[in-house]
Amino acid sequence: MTFSVIIKGGFKVSSASLRELLRLESDNRKIEKMKKYLSITIILLFLLIAFTINPQVKSVAINYEKETVVLGENPVQSCNSKQFSPGNRLWCLIYERERLMKEVAAIKYPKKKPIYDGVRELAVLNNIGIIARKNELPVREMQLYSQIVMDVSRQIQQYWFDLWKKQEVTTAKLSLNQIRQRIDQIDEAIVNSFVLIRGSNSITFEQIQDGLRKSLADLNGIYPSSDRQLFIDLLARVIYAVIKPIK
């Protein structure tokens, strides 16, 4: 049955026409809703593409992977050549830097050279400051990180000095200049890892602690006191201050 209704303005519309108008209005609402969902889908798709192609937004793996480098190899190339997350690359580089301290000790001990070299440490601090500024990292936090690492480096050397008083000295495989050049290269690569991790906004303080603890577990001389967690906590805190997520 068909009937007519009067709508606003005095126009007379049949029931069939009214049903058609309501259907069209419903279809329009559905189209608008589909457009909204399509827009959201496109935005999410672009974010996914950006996440995939931009290495600075990739998450840092929580799981630690142990990897060491043959002493004669270039540790920077070796750590970078592994299919590591930025976090695991960082642990690899820090481990290789401190492993070189046995070589430093093996050169100094027979010549009765002192472990502490103030001139060298100042040069390292100045160099790390230059690198930090160039990479827009916090300079004082970077220098504090570097100072803590050098303190531990001296403790590792002291460990070998004390051991060699009781047994035969290990012969160094590298010259002091070769070692220092390698340390400078590693330090620069560590800074690059800091930059990459800082851009990822995805690493936690606990992950840093865990990575350091596992990577340095078998390094002789790394624990100078009865508190085995002291150095790990100090180093983890200063690293987190350097690479804490950008807000």
Please characterize this protein's 3D structure.
With 247 residues, the chain is mainly alpha-helical. It folds into two domains: 4-53; 62-243, Chorismate Mutase Domain, subunit A (Up-down Bundle). The chain is built from nine helices and two strands, in the order ββααααααααα. The protein has helices at residues 15-53, 75-81, 86-99, 101-108, 118-134, 139-164, 176-200, 205-215, 230-243, and strands at residues 4-7, 11-14. A two-stranded antiparallel sheet has the order 1-2. Strand 1 (4-7) and strand 2 form a beta hairpin. Helix 2 (75-81) packs antiparallel against helix 3 and helix 6 (139-164) runs antiparallel to helix 9. The chain is elongated. The model is unreliable at 2-8 and 36-72 (pLDDT under 50).
Layout of helices and strands:
Elements (H helix, E strand, L loop, with lengths): L3 E4 L3 E4 H39 L21 H7 L4 H14 L1 H8 L9 H17 L4 H26 L11 H25 L4 H11 L14 H14 L4
The order of strands across the largest sheet is 1-2
Name the CATH superfamily assignment of the largest domain: Chorismate mutase
Oligomerization: single chain
User: Could you list the spans in which at least 5 consecutive residues all have pLDDT below 50?
Assistant: 2-8, 36-72
- Could you give the order of the helices and strands? EEHHHHHHHHH
Sheet with most strands: 2 strands, antiparallel
Rg for CA atoms: 31 Å
Would you tell me the structural class of the helices and strands?
Answer: mainly alpha
Structure in a nutshell:
It contains nine helices and two strands; from the N terminus they run E-E-H-H-H-H-H-H-H-H-H. With about 250 residues, the chain is mainly alpha-helical. The radius of gyration is 31 Å and the shape is elongated.
